[in-house]
Amino acid sequence: MKFLYNCLIQVFEWSLPILGIFFSRLRTFYQERRVSKVELKKYLESNQKKSFIWVHVSSLGEYEQVVPVIAKLKIHYTEHSFIISFFSDSGYRVKKNKSVGDFETYLPLDTSGNAKEFIDNIKPKFVIFVKYDIWPNYLNYLKEREIPSFLVASRFRRNQIYFKLYGGFFKRALLSFNHIFVQDEASGQLLNKIKFKNWTVSGDTRYDRVSLQLKQDNRLDFMEAFVEDKLCMVCGSTWQEGENKLIPTINSKEINIKFVIAPHQIDQQHIAEIEQKLKKPLIKYSEIKNQNLQDYDILILDTVGILTKVYAYANMAYVGGGYGNSGLHNILEPAAFSIPILIGPNHHKFPEAKLLENSGGLKVVHSENEMFEIVSEIFRHRDLRDKMSKSSKAFILNQIGATDITIKGILDNLN
């Protein structure tokens, strides 16, 4: 398995310049990483006297998950700089020069050579990986160099390769962590089965992250002008399958509220397809300058990075990804703002959705007709809306605290 893995990664890296000729996404993948490597080298050269802590995340979701951990670690490591590496461009592009860290970079592909070069250049005091983005060659070299490594906010399933008979190579990578912080007891018991004992149930740091959002300034002038004194439903991170369920409800004359649609894909073609299906006055975020937003019933966010603050103006939210195979998006952000939440039925890999449903703050919608009925019911009945809102708020408050457990565990392991 090790030989096959290393061969595939190495061949892919060597092939990127050629593949980029035919596939624009791979061309961008290759070019952005070359630029990022040069920028990292310059940053390290200009900060030679500093010591570094390296945090790796897969994408934007994992970044948000580790934000409260980094924020509290900075209190204890005031003389250190935090380097955050991303694998996905969606996280890197949004947070470059805007993260809680001191420098952002792409993680080079997981070859032995890249791992040695990256780690030897940074020389981190310790390393944090988040949730599930686990790279064997990096972890093996960290262990060889005796650099402490931690996995935070992780959650494991029985069918993952670490727990299979043929998963020895990846299992050894998992075993190389100094300590693993898991979201639930079941994940810890799976680690016990592979003889890994250094684990702690910490909970999910995402709850701490979204609760911090409430302490920030969430005002948006354009949303205040758009919503005015009407009720508002925010449809966040939508995909086409969910949009097809939503659009008949949005178009209905019986529901006289404001709608915000924040598609997950904001390319012009997809935005145009949404516009063609809508029958009420609409405006895109890119067009709002000097416009009277009170004249519009629908606002399409053809931008990224502001959805969290937009949820502050919602009386109800739909969160996308629950139809098809795209995967449910973040329901905790709207829940933190104490609002009722609707999702599609494909949420089985997201335990927070079931927990929030059981608490009364979330409803699962299966069809167009059901979408209309539930939205109508929630907006017609203030008492139902208030009851669901209180359930969402209580749900978030009851789950916070994972960050403190994680910080204590990391510090105890380093002392």
Word description of this protein:
This protein has 2 domains: about 1-205 and about 400-415, Rossmann fold (3-Layer(aba) Sandwich); about 215-395, Glycogen Phosphorylase B (Rossmann fold, 3-Layer(aba) Sandwich), CATH 3.40.50.2000. The model has no long low-confidence stretch (mean pLDDT about 95). Helix 3 (about 60-75) packs across helix 9 (about 205-215) and helix 11 (about 240-250) crosses helix 16. Helices cover about 50% and strands about 15% of the residues. The protein has about 425 residues and is of the alpha/beta class. The two termini are about 35 Å apart. The strands form 2 sheets. Strands 3-2-1-4-5-6-7 form a 7-stranded parallel beta sheet, sandwiched between helices. The protein has a 7-stranded parallel beta sheet with strand order 10-11-9-8-12-13-14.
